């Protein structure tokens, strides 16, 4: 698959197809356990305790990776999958340390918040610090020759490396595209890591090279996390992961080899540390909106609305009639109840409208978290003369060539997508969401298949758009124009 986003020279662009063979799965409990604490001088002390009564056991199985392995664990319990992927066969798919360094040094490619370096002094949790990229060569050289432990983290790697994006579509396609987060890859020298922390989402931690040890504890509530964070740090580091409550002060210790995957549901305490200088870990998270984000988006929608409920203000028509019998406290229950009714009426005006609620939720779910607004390349900004010579000077030219059988349309890598179908007042509306925007078409049977192929990252060829209606052709033209779709001669 060809990407319109220029890629680092060191990134290999060929996709190595995996062929998994089925074999029986054997489940084993991981027996190695670790208790974490502090000694008297404030340095982290690791004390193995195989017989600790409160240690959490993490089930383990052997690959190959499959969503079937997660049936009993998704959202419930951690799972270690040994040899989930054949690491040696994926060296041309998984970015190397050299590839990550090249991305982190390229200020033309990544946005300022897509690359971070996290450093710390060995043994001291209060020394963790974060620095945002892009970085200079001298910064990287300084790390190599310095005395601090360090980790380089690059987000949105699947946007820049199309082979990785294709692989993620294949292996993590069981997640709806709007639920799957970006490819975050961390590389570290021995001793490097980002410290003990908690994530609010499901995450798959794949060891792509080298070795990393993970300490995994039980879940921690948001309030417990807030009470345990070390203050005044640029990184969210837990002060002492061994004592956040009485029932979970011991941790399972896991050593991941290349190809191993550790799945963690939301809010499990974990702490990864590189055991080798060639340590690279790929993190694929499952993003989801929070209640606060949804409420905030409802409020934003109301502020931009001129509907009766959105602009309504509190009134008290009986105020003057109640002067003589006014209660002691001026903010009465009647006033508060009236305002509550106003708010709920305004909220329900959105949530009870299937068209508006669908649009609000799906736009929020597909918004980019880090990428700048110029992450997409509109057709009229393409500078590749060879590409334009093949596909023409306008989006309509490109679609016309696809309809002639000269190639296929692909969705851009590294962008969240969602599709929905809303029936309202007897009209069926098919919708595609991407990058926080929406495209829709009504009562078009072919649109269902086409939009779902786009969401799943499948190519759109002449065979998929035979009998294309004018509205659907216009929708595809708009997607090409805005950089959501691009044309390629690759039909694989």
UniProtKB/TrEMBL annotation:
Needed cofactors: Fe(2+)
Family according to the record: Belongs to the ROX family.
PROSITE patterns linked: JMJC (PS51184)
MF terms (GO), sorted A to Z: 2-oxoglutarate-dependent dioxygenase activity; iron ion binding
EC number(s) from the headed UniProt entry: 1.14.11.-
Domain JmjC residues, every copy: 164-303
Signal sequence extent: 1-26
Annotated localization: Nucleus
Listed name of the protein: Bifunctional lysine-specific demethylase and histidyl-hydroxylase
């Amino acid at each position: 698959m060809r990407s319109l986003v220029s890629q680092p020279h060191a990134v290999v662009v060929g996709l190595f197809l995996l062929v998994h063979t089925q074999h029986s799965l054997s489940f084993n409990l991981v027996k190695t356990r670790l208790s974490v604490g502090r000694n008297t001088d404030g340095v982290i002390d690791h004390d193995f305790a195989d017989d600790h009564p409160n240690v959490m056991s993490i089930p383990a199985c052997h690959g190959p990776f499959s969503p079937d392995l997660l049936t009993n664990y998704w959202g419930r319990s951690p799972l270690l999958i040994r040899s989930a992927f054949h690491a040696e066969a994926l060296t041309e798919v998984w970015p190397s340390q050299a590839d990550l360094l090249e991305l982190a040094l390229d200020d033309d490619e990544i946005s300022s918040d897509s690359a971070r370096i996290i450093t710390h002094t060995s043994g001291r949790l209060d020394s963790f610090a974060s620095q945002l990229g892009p970085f200079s060569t001298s910064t990287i050289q300084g790390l190599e020759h310095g005395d601090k432990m360090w980790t380089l983290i690059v987000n949105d790697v699947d946007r820049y490396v199309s082979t990785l994006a294709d692989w993620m579509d294949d292996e993590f396609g069981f997640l709806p595209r709007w639920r799957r987060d970006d490819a975050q890859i961390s590389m570290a020298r021995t001793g490097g890591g980002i410290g003990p922390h908690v994530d609010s989402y499901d995450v798959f931690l794949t060891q792509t090279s080298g070795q990393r040890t993970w300490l995994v504890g039980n879940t921690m509530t948001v309030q417990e996390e807030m009470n345990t964070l070390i203050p005044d740090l640029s990184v969210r580091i837990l002060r002492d992961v061994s004592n956040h409550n009485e029932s979970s002060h011991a941790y399972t210790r896991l050593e991941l080899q290349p190809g191993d995957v550790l799945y963690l549901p939301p809010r499990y305490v974990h702490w990864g540390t590189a055991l080798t200088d060639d340590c690279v870990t790929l993190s694929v998270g499952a993003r989801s909106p929070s209640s606060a984000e949804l409420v905030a988006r409802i409020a934003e929608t109301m502020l931009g609305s001129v509907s009766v409920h959105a602009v309504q203000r509190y009134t008290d028509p009986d105020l003057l009639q109640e002067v003589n019998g006014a209660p002691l406290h001026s903010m009465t229950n009647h006033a508060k109840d009236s305002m509550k009714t106003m708010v709920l009426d305004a909220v329900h005006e959105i949530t009870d409208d299937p068209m508006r609620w669908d649009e609000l939720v799906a736009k929020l779910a597909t918004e980019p978290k880090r990428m700048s607004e110029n992450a997409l390349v509109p057709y009229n900004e393409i500078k590749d003369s060879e590409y334009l010579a093949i596909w023409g000077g306008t989006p309509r030219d490109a679609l016309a060539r696809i309809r002639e059988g000269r190639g296929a349309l692909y969705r851009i890598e590294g962008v969240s997508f969602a599709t929905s179908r809303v029936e309202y007042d007897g009209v069926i509306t098919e919708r595609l969401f991407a990058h926080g925007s929406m495209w829709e078409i009504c009562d078009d049977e072919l649109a269902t298949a086409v939009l779902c192929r786009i969401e799943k990252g499948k190519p759109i060829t002449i065979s998929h758009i035979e009998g294309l209606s004018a509205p659907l052709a216009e929708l595809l033209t708009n997607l090409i124009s805005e950089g959501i779709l691009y044309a390629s001669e690759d039909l694989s």
